[in-house]
Amino acid sequence: MKIGKVLSVNLSAKRGIKKAVEQLILNSKGIDGDVHARNWNRQISIIDTFHINKFRDLTNARNTEYGEFAENITSEGLGDIKFQTFDQLLIGDAILEVTQLGKPFHDEFRELGNYVMPRVGIFCRVKKIGTIRAEDEILYQPKTYKALVITLSDRASVGEYEDKSGPMVKKVLDSYFKKLQVKYSIEQIIIPDDSEQLSQLLEQAKKDKCDFIITTGGTGIGKRDITVDTVQKFLDKEIPGVMEMIRMKYGQEKPNALLSRGIAGVMGDSLIYTLPGSVKAVQEYMSEILKTLMHLKYMLHGIDAH
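^ that's the sequence the OP posted. Answer follows.
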């Protein structure tokens, strides 16, 4: 966990340069008395002196005062961190969640065409209210995405044959998360086609705020195909377009692809997808699901990623 420090806290009731103050009092809408305090992503902005100094060196700019880049928090020690959305910063008794990377700065800093700050400033929103002051330590806590892969198969659960669809989901997710350069953990479980066992896993995953839940198997019309019916009871909202598009895309050449009843949806803080049990189907479904996976995650948590 990276440790930095707050050098200055700044606010302004109007847009533009902010002035250094004794403390920032945080509420659910952001900073009390600041122009950006409202229910949205960009409640608090942070800029590290590492980047401010780099900007000065590149542009031969004059020395700037704290708050002149319209930052609420001027920090040191965080300049080498590659922030990701949903990372958290623990400052004083408050917790901030990173919601956006990069922020525009004002015309007086557009010297020699060097745009340093839009690439390095960050926006946050309040995750836990509190008070932030100069000299407070900053603890960096990167987001770890949690994925749960559940294979439903009576025979695979007792070792009659090797589960290959679950490991394929894990392999695809491994590659995806590594490409994103984020921290992650993937739990893989095999259970029989049993609604009670699946329900217990879903209830626990909801409590654990698991980010992604992907099941394989049990999406057909057989008497033991209980996956879709069980998952559907847990959904707060269904996302029909994802699975409809996959069925239509692959069903044009292989009509059997139209027979899967797989669904996608939201359960609490989790996104859930129910995939068929074949390795080929898993590869096809995952290739399409990953195209919108993070965008849906941002939407679910109110992050404007456009």
